[in-house]
Hints:
The chain is α+β, with helices and mostly antiparallel strands. The strands form 9 sheets. The chain has an 8-stranded mixed sheet, with helices on both faces. Strands 23, 24, 25, 26 and 27 form a 5-stranded antiparallel sheet that branches. The chain has a 4-stranded antiparallel sheet with strand order 3-4-5-6, with no helix packed on it. A hairpin with a 5-residue loop joins strand 29 (438-444) and strand 30 (450-455).
Amino acid sequence: xxxxxxxSSVMAVVIACGVVGIAALESTAQxxxxxxxxxxxxxxxxxxxxxxxxxxxxxxxxxxxWLENWDDQRVKDWSDAQNAHARAFLDGLPGVERIRERIxxxxxxxxxxxLGWAAAGNEKDGVRYYAMKRDPAFQQPLLVVMDSVDKPESxxxxxxxxxxxxxxxxxxxWFIPSHDGKRVAVSISSGxxxxxxxxxxxxxxxxxxxxxxRVNGGTAGGSMAWFPDDSGFYYTRYPRExxxxxxxxxxxxxxxxxxxxxxxxxxxxxxxxxxxxISEIQLQIDPVTGRVLASVQYGDxxxxxYFMRQPDGVWSKFLxxxxxxxxxxxxxxxxxxxxxxxxxxESPRVxxxxxxxxxxxxxxxxxxxAQGENVIVPDFWPPSPVVVTPKxxxxxxxxxxxxEIRAFxxxxxxxxxxxxxxxSAVNNLDAIPGTDDLLFDNRSFIDAPACYxxxxxxxxxxxxxLAVVSPVDFxxxxxxxxxxxxxxxxxxxxxxxxxxxxxxxxxxPTILWGYGGYGVNILPAFSAVxxxxxxxxxxxxxxxxxxxxxxxxxxxxxxxxxxxxxxFDDFAACARHLVTRGYTSVDRLAIQGxxxxxxxxxxxxxxxxxxxxxxxxxxxxxxxxxVELSPNGAFNIPEFGTVRDPxxxxxxxxxxxxxxxxxxxxxxxxxxxxxxxxxRVDPMQSRKMTARMQHAVAGVPGANPVLLRTSANTGHGMGxxxxxxxxxxxxxxxxxxxxLGMWSEGEGKQ
Length: 750
């Protein structure tokens, strides 16, 4: 119900990018000096140690392979020196303190928000609503329970991770309430590691029993499902010491069953040991029959298979890769005993099948919702974009970025569905137990997120009390969707957020944000901080490039494996579109992305060094020949490919950013950001790319800065404390204000 997808799939989605300002600044301002007073001109010198690697007869020299070993004190010293260099530059920028104060003011003025809710209980005993409460007074969100989505004042704290670590380094990965709502299972990790232990609390916040270790991870995530009577649960975990070789302890996810009140040593192995090394497992249970459904994905963005545990305790595989089923959901009410299947077979935009869960005969499954013009959204990671209620089926559809919810009966006949905001995102769908009513999150680029309640009987959609109150007003702002034309003629959506009064004179500071991977649909996202960027004459744009899922699986496949270059061509086309249309100029354009979006930044700046003024690349991948050697890198093979395959190696080598950095090229100003505890993208990727870039520009007259910022107590982005987020935003936005010339003469001085 409330397991967020791994950030490797959506890191760039959950980190809303916005830039702050202090006062409305003149768009005609002259660009400030790239080297602030007092900052060293030259970056630390990085020694080279040529290492020869041979791939399919191709000799590749890796000068900075030594930077991969974090256990080497020389690497730690090098990282410290890079941080000192970055700090000297960033702290010397104009207006830093004013920017920090303004960001802090905005972040701590956003109202309390209730995110990731989950309803549990029944009509007899009452329904409870669990939610993550984000309060600016705390470093980390709290898990609370309330009696009604319209009575947040009734919220009671169940788990406060801020009491576990006073510095905010403990975080809740996910939570799942029991069917009766009297208990809740919670994964808790620390330091951005996402290595979570499973805790069970009662509704008053009392720990029921000792936690189960390493249930969640930054590689394959984690999952659990309560028994029908809530007396125990099925759960996934990683191997223990002695069960697998040390190099395999972050792989080979397995499923066990546990009964409350018994020691972990008594838990029963269920399935998983014989699955592929990079298997990821998500669990569901039918509370009526007790059947357990295990959805298995083979690496991030990989193929699927499905296993069912029948009431007699026997597991069987009933769907495999060739069946092209991308999601399976148990029926309810008059569809109890059936499974709804989302398939891309002969339907790249997805159709819905209904199959009997007892016989598990795919040949007898019926198509109840045919493929349409728009794409039905599947998702391996909960919360599901598909919800089945006693009499209804709710499906999330995407339209090249924006999304909406459509309703059907269990036979696929269309019904009245929820109303949503224009050009918006819907997510976190959750049915109210025992009803056909639906709760969902709806937000846009200019509308703050809110929980909405759809009344199935009346057809009325209303905003509940669980709504974020933004401290800023976007009423003078508009969202425009245009289409850039990529290298091969493909039309690529670009979402442009700006003040209505902005003139298309080519002088507006602009950020272009992108991701393009894993079939992830980049949804409209709200950021209060972005308002300050808009007020200062800035334009913010989001590119829905290939590699994502904006137009279905085919859109994804056109930007994965040997076709990954399409992503970079699409993004470059979007950048040029903004310049051609007069939104900005090359000297006023910045590009930004994280994780897979960091790879996008690296490829864009090496392939098109003259396309923009500045680059912000967070937790990115830059050495495509070495990425699969890290634990999470192995999970990315289905998306990127492997150097072991000759054709895939050639494709990887052709765009691998670090291998295409050239000497004597004037690259844009660059800031790389990484977290020392990142479980998804090894920080060595940012270290090596920084070293290579700094060496390349060392002899270039008037070279722009290349900075590396490493956070010691964070990871890929999940679980980052509020204060750490403020400091990171301060550095990014000070950097961009300077590089895009947003300080007029005399502005920004301390």
